[in-house]
Amino acid sequence: MMLNSKFKRYILFLSAALAFASGAGSGCSGSRDSALSLIDEPAAVKIPVTNFRYVSSKLPTMNLKTLIDESCVKCHNAEITPDVPLTNYLEVYTRGVLVKRAVQPGGRMNKYLPFDYDKIMEWYEAGMPE
Question: Please, are residues 15 and 93 in contact by the beta-carbon 8 Å criterion?
Answer without folding.
Answer: no
